[in-house]
Amino acid sequence: MKLKVAVIFGGRSAEHEVSLLSARNIISALDKNKYKIVLIGIDKKGHWYLEDQAHYLLNPDNPKLIGLARSGKELVLPPTPLARQNLSVDVAFPVLHGTYGEDGTIQGFLKMAGIPFVGAGVLGSAVGMDKEVQKRLLRDAGIPTARFVVLANPSPLAPSHFLSPLFVKPANLGSSVGVSKVYNQKELKRAIKEAFKYDTKVLIEEAVAGREIECAVLGNEKPVASLPGEVIPAGSHEFYDYDAKYFDENGATLQIPAKLSKEQVSKIQKISVKAFKALNCEGMARVDMFLKPDGKVLVNEINTIPGFTDISMYPKLWEVSGLPQTALLDRLIELAISRFDNERKLSISRN
Do 195 and 165 belong to one domain? Predict the structure, then answer.
């Protein structure tokens, strides 16, 4: 009997369109002989729709114009939406990047509903989303990161002990949305204002001179790391920003795998797994790092729902490591069900 997999995508996030692109590829790659796919699209206002697989996207081949068709039946959520509407599923696959999808909210909802789901749990998702908390936990685990300060209001001065250039970013967002690289106070003020559009907390980080390395991690209790890849910004992109990641095919060169020595590969893989465990991640995550000229590795951030677009690193890194995308999705679903089964064995009563 086929497993019924609910792919949940869209969402109330600045990364809504990226989610649609990722979902399209996941839906295409899932083995139709193993799974019956249920499509659940969430629009930007937070309305949930049961989508028709033939008509769930508008402009699916244009990343800049892609949109949710909202052609399906709207779902009524509280308190147990899937069960109430006869949508019993075996496992959920959240493909919700950013706010309300990658921050523990959808994970808590699915956990309350008793539905196995792909990816990190509530805590791992929340920690992975909040860059300040994430960096503090990495630092406590002895994993080096770039120096940073946190702002709770939009009118600070630049940290005097940090050297220019600086990065300014919302604490809780991904895909480089709201991120700016700045060189002076005027640019800093403008960048802080932009970042506060997306979050109530903003990070200012010292820029790190080094190669941008990414590594994919897969697993629950015994996670493993892929071969690392390298991102080399190109064209007019000073760093790997939103447009370079998703819209500009020439925005960056992806070196997969990265040109590294065996010793460097081993070091990066070990740090990636260590970061994955330190942040209580499960299922999957992409660890972004800097490799400095002196050989030191600094972890930049971790992404618990990495992109699955045509040019996304996470599936490409696993493919070059010997795990094609369809097999990767199989493994992620297996990990979700395994965790759920283990959690069901826990006692919920003292009797």
Answer: yes
- Considering 104, 288, 312, 339, which one is annotated as catalytic? 288
Active-site residue (options: 102, 103, 214, 301): 301
| Distance separating alpha carbons of residues 301 and 287, to the nearest angstrom | 6
CATH (domain of 217): 3.30.470.20
Domain membership of residue 152 (yes or no) is yes
Dihedral angle of Cα 209, 215, 287, 27, to the nearest 10 degrees:
130
Tokens 């790659």, residue?
29
Q: Is 288 a catalytic residue?
A: yes
- Residue of 15, 102, 194, 205 marked catalytic: 15
- Unique residue bearing structure tokens 């509407």: 85
Residues 155 and 106 in one domain: no
Indicate whether 299 and 168 sit together in one domain.
no
User: Does the pLDDT of residue 242 top 70, yes or no?
Assistant: no
322 is catalytic: no
Tell me, yes or no, if 250 is annotated catalytic: no
Which of 158, 175, 206 terminates a domain? The answer is 206
Query: Is it the case that residue 108 has pLDDT exceeding 80?
Result: yes
At 172-222, the pLDDT tens digits run 776 577 788 888 888 888 888 888 888 888 989 888 999 999 999 999 999
The H or E element that residue 40 is part of is strand 35-42
Is 226 annotated as catalytic? no
Which of 56, 240, 246, 314 is an active site residue?
246
Instruction: Measure the CA–CA gap between 212 and 125, rounded to whole angstroms.
Output: 23
Q: What is the pLDDT of residue 237?
A: 47
- How many domains does one find in the chain? 3
Q: Which of 43, 115, 93 is nearest to 56 (CA)?
A: 43
Active site annotation includes 249: no
For 266-307, what is each residue's pLDDT tens digit? 999 999 999 999 999 999 999 999 999 999 999 999 999 999
Examine the residue annotation and report whether 175 is marked as an active-site residue of this protein.
yes
Whether residue 27 is found in the same domain as residue 156:
no
Task: Say whether 303 is catalytic.
Answer: yes
Residue entry with tokens 């970013």: 169
